[in-house]
Structures are given as C-alpha cells and as structure tokens.
Amino acid sequence: MLWLLAAAWCVLLPGPIYGCQKRIIINPEANMNISQIISYWGYPYEKYDVITEDGYILGTYRIPHGKGYSRKTVPKAVVYLQHGLSASASDWICNLPNNSLAFLLADRGYDVWLGNSRGNTWSRKHLTLSPESPEYWAFSWDEMAKYDLPATINLILEKSGQQQLFYVGHSQGTTIAFIAFSTNPELAKKIKIFFALAPVVTVKYTRNPMRKLATLSRKAVKILFGDKMFATHTLFEQFIATKVCNRKIFRSLCSKFMFFLTGFDPQNLNMSRLDVYMAQTPAGTSVQNLLHWAQAVKSGKLQAFDWGNPDQNMRHFNQLTPPVYNITKMRVPTAMWSGGHDVVASAKDTENLIPKVANLIYYKEIPHYNHMDFYLGQDAPWEVYQDLIGLMEDYLQN
Question: Which of 92, 111, 317, 376 is deepest in the core (most CB within 10 A)?
Fold first, then answer.
C-alpha cells in the first residue's frame, strides 16, 4: 500500500514530475454504476430488487437482448451470472463489449441477468435492519446459498416466463451454487447447466495471501476489521483507480497489486482499462464471510459457519457442530474451467473437487490463467466463452 500512497502524492504535486502526470487515459466507465455502464455501450437494461426470505434486498440487473435485437424478439434462453467474493455484477461488463461475457451473451440472443450478493455495493439494503448495525452483517456464504440464490433465480424465472436457466458462477459464485444445488433439489431442477469458472469448494491448498488470516483467532480478526463490513470500495481507492492507475507510468505497479491477490498473468490483462477494473472493486462483503473462509482454510472442508459455541450452532443447525455440505448429491450438469496460475482456487483443491461432481459434462484447465482471467482475460472469449456458449447452443438444439 505504500507505493499507492507514493503514487497518489506524485499525482497531487503541481506540474509533471519525472513524467508521473503524462499519458493520462480516462475510461468513463470508471465513474459509472452498473446501469450506466450497460447503457454506455448501447444495451438495454432493467433493474429489479430481489427480496430474500430473511429481508435482504439485492440489486439485480437484466440485459434482455443485444444491440442487434428488438424487444419483441423471443430470447434463446435465460443466463444468470453470479460474481465472486467481494465483487459485483460489474465483473461481467467491465471489459469492452467484445470481451465481456454479459454483452457477448446478449448479442447472441440470450436474456442475461446479473446478480449481486448481499452486502456488496449494489445490495446493501434490508427491510428492517440497518447496514450500520452488526446484525445486518451477520451472514456469510451460507445465507447466500440458502436465501440469495433461490430468491434471485425464482424472480428471474418469474419475470422471464421461463422454467429453467443457465447458471454461470465465478469463484464464490460457484461455492454458493454447489451448496444450493446439492441441498435444494427443487432449485436444482431449475438449472439447465451450471458453468463453474475458477470453482471453489475447498480452500485447503489455497495460496492466496488472505489465507494468513486463518492463523488468527476470531477475536483478532474482529479487532483488525470490526464486526461489520469488509473490503468496501473507498473514496481513496476510487482516487487511486481514476487518478493514479490510469497513468501509464503506474500501470505495472497497479497490476502487480491485483496479481498479488489472484495470481500472475500480465500479458492477458488490458492495462488501458485498469482504472475501470479497480474502480469497480472491491464491492464489499461481511467480516463474518471472511471468517467463514478462514474457517474453510483451517478445516479443509466445505462446512457451514461455526457460530462459536454449541448452543449457537444448535440454534442455527439443530446440531452441536456445523454441518458439512455434501456436493456429491448435486446432479446438475456441470462444466468447469480452472487456471494453472490461480492462487485462490488451487490446482490441488480443484483436483480433489473433480471426482465429487456427479454430472461433470466438461472440464478444461487453462495453464496460464489466474483467478480473474475468467472475466478479465483478453483471451477469455476463445479460451472460455466460446466453449461455454457452444455448450448452451448444443443444449438448446437437443
């Protein structure tokens, strides 16, 4: 973070110093919200508030058709895109239209929906709880799987008039899907194919620097981060994104900060759009969600959140210890892609996952991919999206 402060100081100084203020490139999307980005590229959009059973209000976005279609055109099918940890729906639209999965799908005639998990920038409302209260933030991926996915998928099918949809998840977006589709058979029946990008079920072998939090006590983590929100996007980070990282001299440093957390693949990142990428993330989640991931690193299991004592666990699960999720019960047709340079979803954890997926219809490892290449990679359209869309087309023709 010290280099970011130094870079910010360089930008704030009057006049060009050693070229630090040269080559300023500003992408307007860096200062836009999700609706504005979709509209900026000429696509139609609709916004819906999904209300979960436990009262959370989730901002959900729809791109009903591409630029070459009219509103009267019947879409091929519904596709739902779900982001990862501390991210948002902007992941799927932050590249150019010919490199963003949401826009590519819309242009192929699909009805595209973008979800936002509770607690992120676009889903920070509740019917009764205030985000200023710790009670609002008492959730993790357990609740996202139990409440967020069913509520969102049901609303999408209701509004679209469809009975099933294609589900695309990245990282934590795959975690909550594995849980939801293995524990909720009725929800699983509504999924045509589950596309898992950088799938995360266990993180026993993860090499992400955040794994060090697993060595700390729960009390220590709360002293560091509090008991509410974790990794929200701040004004300082927006400044760094739009005033520092959009300058050519700082691109290498900014990208290294991103690669440090996700794995390196510098040749595959569009450096001219760093301001957009960094302006849209992080979008925030709960400290409890962070604790849940630390628990998963320690245990090596996909297990519900341990509330800290047997009485609390009994209240939440009717048993003294949190249950382990058995994903072998999931029967949804599943296609998976993993990356050889992914430090979050490690090769060893993925290797252990593969035999547990009962209906695996496709798998591809991409040796040079890091954790974010699946939505930011310049070659994602032919390394991932080409086959993903091909599997959809095959399904619809059969």
Answer: 92
